[in-house]
Hints:
single chain; five-stranded mixed β-sheet
Amino acid sequence: MQFPPYGNYSVDISGNVLEVFALGAWNLKTTQLFVEEMHSLIKRFDGEPWAALMDGRRWVLATPDCQAYLSEAIKTNIAMGLCRSAYVLDSGMVKKAHLERTHPSKQRDSEFPQYERQYFKKYFEALNWLNQEGFSPILTKP
């Protein structure tokens, strides 16, 4: 498989979940475009609690300057109602270690008590966890 030279992504909202598919190796410009589009989309949640589901199995990492940028974006997301993040990654620790650097707080529980992040190897495991936490891409209005 060939990857675009600066990575790519797909982002959309389903139910109360922001779904992200990340591809290739990201540079800062790709990250900035992604964050801009993501922040535009999450306004639809109108401050209500929501979750993010990120499929990073075809992601090849990002440049170091992206980590701080993404960390700040995640803080903004939490302020806009993000409660849970489920990351689907292939086996290996490099991607997880890379993403841990984007976690908005080293003192996670004290600064952002409503936010939790989990990692999964299978997409449906991530969906199941989000569903147990009250978030689903398939929501019906009562």
